[in-house]
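thread from #wetlab-drylab

HS: before we spend reagent money on co-crystallization trials with NAP, can we at least see a predicted complex? here's what I'd submit
DV: go for it
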Amino acid sequence: MKTKYCLPIIESKSTETFKIIKDNFKNYDYFEIWLDYIEDLTPNFIDSLKKEYNVKLIFLFRRLLLATPNMSYQKRIELVDSLSNSKCLLDLDIFSQKKELEYLNKSNKHIQLILSYHNYQETPDNKKLRKIIDLMMKYNPYIYKISTFCKKDQDALRLIDLSIELKDKNIKNVILGMGDKGTITRIAGVILENEISFTPVDTKSKSAPGQLTKEELEEKVKNIQVCYFIADPARHSMSPQMHEAGYRSLGIEDKFLFLRQKVVSKDLKKFIDGMRINPNIIGACISVPHKIEIMKYLDILDETAKKIGAVNTVVKEGGKLRGYNTDWIGILTPLKQITHDSLNGKTAAVVGAGGAARAATYALTLEEAKVTIFNRDIEKGKALAEDFNCKYDSLDNIKRISEFDIIIHATKIGLLSTDSPLISEDLIKPNQIVFDVVYSRDDHKTELIKQANNKNAKTISGIEMLLHQGVAQFELFTGQKVSIDVMRSALT
Ligand code: NAP
């Protein structure tokens, strides 16, 4: 369902309100009428509006946080009553219009409600916003609306995430960031098909900071290039903040939008089909568990992705979907930095035989390191070893790991803080290189990295892999070089 455009109307005369609706009737799906600004407001006026424009109307009163209400509570309640059993929408603020809300709840009036939360100073953290949404549930609103001021670059991203989260739960929502830093939420709102987009006709009638006129918004939406991060789960990903920081550093933040989306395995094809037909989507980062499965839905595979047997990046090129792999770059770049470019002849143990292990084995054998695969499923380890002409062993023989110059841990162990590492501390020797592709969101250090540090080994955290594979993805999506330091700073 496409977003519906709404024209906010703040007028002092009822005739003028009518005229604005009439003049813009064809271009807008909704008209938002700020009732207590109308000086000659009468029940007749409301009745005539309802009669002519019923489903297209949203009514609201001044919010205490924005301006002092100049209509008595009694009058507001009369107006609320007059909307009962109509198809109009009524927007009430969960905190500043609680009395009206409670009245509505108790009196059992049938009114379609937009329940909103406004914060004109800041965007609270998502934990607090989720609590407010939980609070809203009690009133069973038709639409959940959150509108907060974006002070920090991250605020808009968090709001977009929240909107995706609600959409996933089939909760109708309008989530908006006010101010210049929030503008991207209005563009994302149309892309994500939020219920309503508030857009004035011209600049002088804007009703909230950062609002765009309908023409401006449509122009921006037409030109925005969207990249997705898809995985299951997807919430842990730090890719959006990294890519958005890159856009800002190059001044292209209003040309690109990075969205994170949970996609379960059964919906992978649906996502790819949607990507093909949506002209805005130019690429996607692919993560666990889709890196292998996705290959069968693509038109072309880059040679390296084919050799590795996994795709972590999809780019739309001339209408075709091409699969790339940048994970190997994320592994090789920090390894080359720590070994001063001399991997040739070094012995390396790769623990795991999934997508990340395949990328690691490709990178290491490319540089002529001598690789041995250790995997739980020995058949899978053997298959990987055969693909890259290297050795393999059972995970039961993990104690052999002390013999190797380089250890690359590439299983899922360590994602949870309760995981105990597959490689115990006593097996790690000083001066070994220990690279854990897994990273912890909090301090980036997994238990394995902490143990390796205790043993004076040289360590590389999964955050380095994330960074370098992300830089390569950024360049594939935008065709532009980005500063590693900019991307890195977004990960702290
Ligand atoms: P995958 O293809 O699903 O492979 C998972 C691997 O983990 C398999 O080798 C599997 O062994 C092993 N494994 C799972 N549970 C295990 C257990 N309990 N004991 C021993 N081995 C176990 O996943 P992937 O794409 O390779 O990703 C692996 C990890 O790398 C994930 O945590 C992912 O987040 C991380 N990663 C990080 C980055 C980054 O940028 N830092 C990039 C890519 C991936 P079996 O074959 O025996 O099942």
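DV: Residues 288-289, 291, 327, 330, 352-357, 375-377, 380, 410-413, 415, 422, 437-439, 462, 465-466, 469 surround NAP (CB under 6 Å).
HS: ok that's useful, forwarding to the group
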